[in-house]
Automatic annotation (TrEMBL):
<dbReference type="InterPro" id="IPR008030">
    <property type="entry name" value="NmrA-like"/>
</dbReference>
<dbReference type="InterPro" id="IPR051164">
    <property type="entry name" value="NmrA-like_oxidored"/>
</dbReference>
<dbReference type="Pfam" id="PF05368">
    <property type="entry name" value="NmrA"/>
</dbReference>
<keyword id="KW-0521">NADP</keyword>
<feature type="domain" description="NmrA-like">
    <location>
        <begin position="7"/>
        <end position="254"/>
    </location>
</feature>
<dbReference type="InterPro" id="IPR036291">
    <property type="entry name" value="NAD(P)-bd_dom_sf"/>
</dbReference>
<comment type="similarity">
    <text>Belongs to the NmrA-type oxidoreductase family.</text>
</comment>
<protein>
    <recommendedName>
        <fullName>NmrA-like domain-containing protein</fullName>
    </recommendedName>
</protein>
Length: 285
């Protein structure tokens, strides 16, 4: 693969993963075209201030997406079921991205999927990403699949009573089962490294994680940060919420679930964060 010299399109650049990828690329001196719905959004303006080119790309208007990919050398994309259109909407977005990348002659596409996507988990929002992966592969687009594990960011919503003496972390999975996790900023760093040099992932896919902790170990990290006792409380899978989340936490509860290549993750992202390091920077109790 030749060195990166052209423009990289970043789909969803004002979102968590897209924003992290765009910032990592800009920090490396790469020309970034940030694909956004609303260029006046503060997050879009912040990217522009950092040197990104803004391009409007509205998935309800495929022509705008095609225009945004014009002249792009490589691209980063992710899809989500949280757009209000569920997993079918996510699949349709992925198909549109792949078709546009193909017609634009994109040299390499990095698609942020999910850990375990290729292992037929039966989890709806994992299966939707698997279908996008398969579509990209069948089109013959040169691509790398970055497959993140559980986000550190999601753990903050599982914490309760941190103002009291009894700090509790609750998850719908048993204690003693390690959960692989990663920071969103590290997803961006890995994606940027692959976009700059896709040969660093010779298999074409990498499952990534920065840490692996049980529920009690997660609680201990929170406790150290807050300088007070903390404990883990295992909830039943039914407490996870909808069928999708219940399926995911049931999968977590039966190892092996995630199977990240932590050595390759660290090689791609030398600043890879443990959960404790990330929490020290992101949470002030």
């Amino acid at each position: 693969m030749v060195a990166l010299s052209g423009v990289v399109a970043v789909v969803g650049a004002t979102g968590q993963q897209g924003g992290a990828t765009a910032r990592a690329l800009l920090s490396a001196g790469v020309a970034v075209r940030a694909l956004v719905r609303d260029p006046q959004k503060p997050a879009a303006q912040a990217l522009a201030a950092d040197g990104a080119e803004l391009a409007i790309a509205d998935f309800d208007d495929p022509a705008s997406v095609r225009m945004a990919f014009d002249g792009v050398e490589r691209a980063f994309a992710m899809t989500t079921m949280t757009s209000g259109r569920g997993t079918e909407g996510e699949i349709n977005d992925g198909i549109l991205i792949a078709d546009v990348a193909k017609s634009a002659g994109v040299e390499h596409l990095v698609y942020s999927s999910v850990g375990g996507a290729e292992r037929h988990t039966g989890i709806p929002h994992f299966e939707s990403k698997r279908r996008v992966e398969e579509y990209i592969k069948n089109l013959g687009i040169p691509a790398t699949y970055v497959r993140p594990t559980f986000f550190y960011d999601n753990l903050l919503s599982q914490l309760s009573n941190f103002e009291a003496s009894d700090m509790v972390v609750r998850l719908p999975m048993p204690d003693g089962v390690p959960l692989q996790m990663v920071a969103v900023s590290d997803i961006g760093a890995v994606a940027a490294a692959v976009l700059i040099d896709p040969s660093r992932v010779p298999t074409g896919a990498v499952e990534i994680a920065g840490d692996e902790l049980t529920g009690s170990q997660i609680a201990d990290v929170f406790g150290r940060r807050a300088a007070q006792p903390a404990r883990f409380e295992a909830l039943p899978a039914a407490a996870a919420g909808d069928d999708d989340l219940r399926a995911m936490f049931t999968w977590f509860s039966t190892p092996p679930s995630y199977q990240a290549d932590r050595a390759l993750t660290a090689e791609l992202d030398p600043s890879l964060q443990t959960f404790e390091r990330w929490l020290d920077q992101r949470w002030n109790p």
